[in-house]
Amino acid sequence: MKEILKRRTDLIATLVFVLAIVAMVFLLRKETAQPVVEVTGDGLYNPGTYTSEVTGMKAMTVTVTFSDTAITDIQLEHEETPGIGVPVCESMPAQIIQLQGLGIDAVAGATLTSNAILDGVADCVAQAGGDVEALKAITPTVEQEEDQEMTADVVVIGAGGAGMAAAVTANQEGKTVIVIEKTSQMGGNTALAGGALNAVDDGSETALAHDDSVEFHYQQTFEGGDKQGDPELVRVLVENAWDGVEWLKSLGMEFYDGVFTVTGGMWQRAHKPVEPEGSGFFKTYQAYMDENQGITMQYNTKAKELIVEDGVVVGVTCTGPTGNTITVRANNGVVLATGGFGRNVEMRMAANEETHMWPTLDESIPSTNTPAITGDGIVMAEAVGAQLVQMGNIQLLPLGDPETGSLSGNIEHSVESRIFVNLEGNRFVNEGGRRDEMTLALFEQPETTMFIIMDSDCYPTGDEVNNFNETINDLVAAGRAYKADTLEELAEQIGVPAENLVASVEEYNRHCLGGDLEGQPDEFGRTLFTDAEEKNNGINNPPYYAAARVPTVHHTMGGVKINTETQVLDTQDNPIPGLYAAGEVTGGIHGTNRLGGNALTDTVVFGRIAGTNASAFTK
Ligand code: ADP
Prior knowledge:
With about 625 residues, the protein is α+β, with helices and mostly antiparallel strands. It has 17 helices and 22 strands. It is globular and about 70 Å long.
């Protein structure tokens, strides 16, 4: 009897539970259901002009005009990044109108902008009563073109920083050049970089004022990479860095006066271009190509295999924009400049097995890189006998956007004025330490997630921009950062225990304010605090801000082995005739840890050498 009663009670409890779930699902569905607009006429849309507010890199207004059967006009009001988002804002509306559909891929490297446009138009379609899903199913149809052969003096694979430096240099040597680029635009990771590059003009007033020299740049680069970089390559990097800046200036690129320390750069020797992020490089290279004949940009073309004849690399086989085969031959040399492998999960996991530098590099770890950075050049070079070096040296940053892995959305302005807390509201690391140490500590935290916590000292108006041209006001409006008048409210918004967050901030403030610290150094060894002499010090000036960050794969320091002439070496250290490489595709320059500001120097210095030597190569 007792048993039957118990079973019946269990049954009733189960029934009540199921009914509760059904009711909840129903209520939730009701709340989230989209209002459906009926089309009143016989056409596809209710004619008119509709507007949608979306967020790309910044807030964007998308205005779409419909006739009863077609999308007739798309206007964007935006402040996207020149050289990255702006070209997409110019090309994508026309593409959508031509296609009368939304099945268009986001442009690599400008996914936030692309998706914002697609979302905005989709929203307007819904407002006009159109069928969004049907439009998403319409994709551009391409008819496969005939296979094709192309020839130039020099062939460059990859139109990022190193590839374009090589292409322009080869052209200055009087050569015709074909640049093969997998995506629809130049830029690669270089376009997303902070933009600043390290270079010392030895003996100049600037160098003397900052106690800097080429030798010091050498030492810091070599030692910063735990002495694993090839000393000869490091020397080439630092000795040609300033010449690289002068070359860029001679091409019309503008830099701010003076030098500064880029995060992780160790010293004040970074030169900041006037244009945001890496866009100034590509504006400069494009301007050169507009003025000079002889460089053909072959976009939407993926290099697949190097062509070797009698032991000499003579060209490359590619897949063209319509899936056709394009064979590109070089009269002189071939330059490999396809970047690293930060977005190739399998490859980075295998490389990490060599060093166990990181607990994991599986697909749960995002990357700052564009989706095109998949190590293609490394695979192609290895297939023709190239030696790979230090593949396990992979740099991560603790500052990735949790959704995209990008460095955008970063709210910090200076190392001294912010703390990191975990999901328990507790600090866990010296926030002024090495990037790898901070990232490793972050791996140990719950959900591998932290929040940057700051006050308003760096944000007197909220309109100050970060490297990505974003303001804290934009980020808060987009739900990518949090703002509150008290730490308790901030804790509630970000879901961490208020008492812990308050205690973490109070302890940090005690150090900033020079409180009773005798014999009580910072628990994590932090030494960089806001200056106690300054008016605004500590985190005590509301409103307070927070933004979530996760580890993100940033730079792969390993790759194809080269010599100082950028010739690719085989497993016996002999040059592979005809094949040159520059930029992140190469390995062994930066050792275990690449200094901030040295990647762009690398692209310019080694890109130029590769361009010169590939031009001089004869079979
Ligand atoms: P670096 O800093 O070394 O110049 P980037 O990341 O800036 O490297 O640029 C590398 C470029 O190479 C990107 O534009 C990328 O799209 C391109 N790329 C990568 N793989 C291929 C490939 N298989 N064929 C053509 N281009 C490629």
